Amino acid sequence: MAQTQYEAARVSGLELNGTARFVGMGGAMGALGADISTIGSNPAGIGMYRSHELSTSLSWNSFSADTKSYESHKNRMSFDQLGFVYAFKVGNETDLRFVNFAFNYHKSKNFTRQLAAGGSLNGLSQTQQMANMVNHLSVGNIDDVYNYGDYDDIPNPYNNYSYPYLGVMGIRTELVGIGANDKPIGWDGISNGYFSREKGGIESYDMNLSINVQDRYYFGLTLGIDGINYRKDSYYTEDIVDGAHSGYYELDNYYKLEGVGVDLKLGAIIRPIEDSPFRIGAAIHTPKWYELTEKYTAQVGSELDYDGGLEHFSARESLEDYVNGVNLRDYTMTTPWKFQLSAGTTVENMIALGAEYEYMDYSTARMRYKGGDKIHEQNANVKEDLRGVHTVRVGMEARLAPEFSVRAGYNFSTAAFKKGAYKALDYNDMRTDVDYENSFEKHTISAGLGYRGENFFADLTYKYNTYKSDFYPFSADALRATKVDNSRHQVLLTLGVRF
């Protein structure tokens, strides 16, 4: 066992990114079209091109995750987009006016982030969760098992499918002991500290075919190939006590998720009134079919004093000593369907207005083992803890002069997690990172400038994204969440030519 509903949410949700013009208008261009980034939202938007285009985008980003006691910041440059459109004109009098082809690369999600947290635990401890994970096992038997590499005749506890990795590590570093009725027990927590570093992203490669019918009806199809590369390194430490016994321990976790996904996007744009610039758009995105591989490992170190310091115990347990390096886990995932409705118009060729609604039910994401069997318990957790996400986008562009424009946009997305969601690990789970974070609604505002010459164009946009989240270093009913304020500043530049 390894996968959780938090991987399903991480893979399903994307962010507003693309060309500076697209981002500057809040991504609300599903009905307006004629921007390369609509290839990934409403594919019919490519059908509105009447000339060839080549563009590229890069950005500067500042990420922040602030708690009451700590502030974490990370700055990074990013290459965000490269694409072209080939517009093939069929004729002016035929019903079919253009057949267009396009390709676009863009970074659809950036995972860069750092988080620091910590404080008083009031008796709660991660070791208590370790004890709960091995409540069905004999602590003494596991504690007597030695390094499999040194003693070939003694079983390796990490090869037993009934043993959870973190629970076994807790037993073998004496963070889990034997209580009343021979039941596993943990320590009382005094205080803790946590730090994590995340990096990577989701990179999308979209290929599009679109058509223009009578300059009123536009249809498009996009084949999308997404590559995900996510890595998280985390460190957790805790001061613990049990009567006259005291000490501390440290837990280091390494986790990496890699994979490739494929989906199809279908879209249409229609001008219902022939003499009006008003248009409506609709798009459907199939689930992404992902082939994923997880890699993870961990080590625990404990320093414990018994009987007021008369006896000292020290231990260090590393999974790499028992499972031949990094654990690997292959599985498949299908993300939810996505549905979009949009509307847009222009006013006197001076102002463009766009609005868009999107719905994606995160609770319908599903995971399967490599052989095709459903991962039932994790799918049940996805269904129970995730919900449908509603996103609203609005944007405008105003032409100040024939060559210069200003833009503004706003996005709002509801929360993906239900109240009370938590990372549920199985009794035999291979995962050792028990921390989790539930995010709430997200707000994104953007503003930008644009220049359009006869062939060359340049756009500059500033985007600010913010949301709050509840962070938990482990799962316990009475554990209070650490409140996190997350934000991202992005300055995006796009350069391109039309010919």
Explain this structure:
A hairpin with an 8-residue loop joins strand 9 and strand 10. The strands form two sheets. The protein has a 14-stranded antiparallel β-barrel with strand order 1-2-3-7-8-9-10-14-15-17-18-19-20-21. Helix 3 (126-133) crosses helix 5 (165-172). With 499 residues, the protein is mostly beta strands. It is built from six helices and 21 strands. It has one domain: Porin.
Features:
Porin, mainly beta, single chain, 14-stranded antiparallel barrel, elongated, two-stranded antiparallel sheet
Q: Write down the overall geometry.
A: elongated
**Number of helical regions:** 6
Radius of gyration: 26 Å
How do the strands line up in the largest sheet? 1-2-3-7-8-9-10-14-15-17-18-19-20-21
CATH superfamily: Outer membrane protein transport protein (OMPP1/FadL/TodX)
CATH hierarchy class name: Mainly Beta
- Give the CA-CA distance, first to last residue: 54 Å
Low-confidence stretches: 145-151
CATH architecture classification name: Beta Barrel
* Topology as a string of helices (H) and strands (E): HHEEEEHHHEEEEEEEEEEEEHEEEEE
In percent, how much strand structure appears in the residues? over 45%
Helix-strand makeup class: mainly beta
| Count of domains | 1
- Summarize the biggest pleated sheet: 14 strands, antiparallel, barrel
Q: What is the β-strand count?
A: 21
Oligomeric assembly: single chain
Mean pLDDT: 92
Q: Return the CATH topology.
A: Porin
- Percent range of helical residues: under 10%
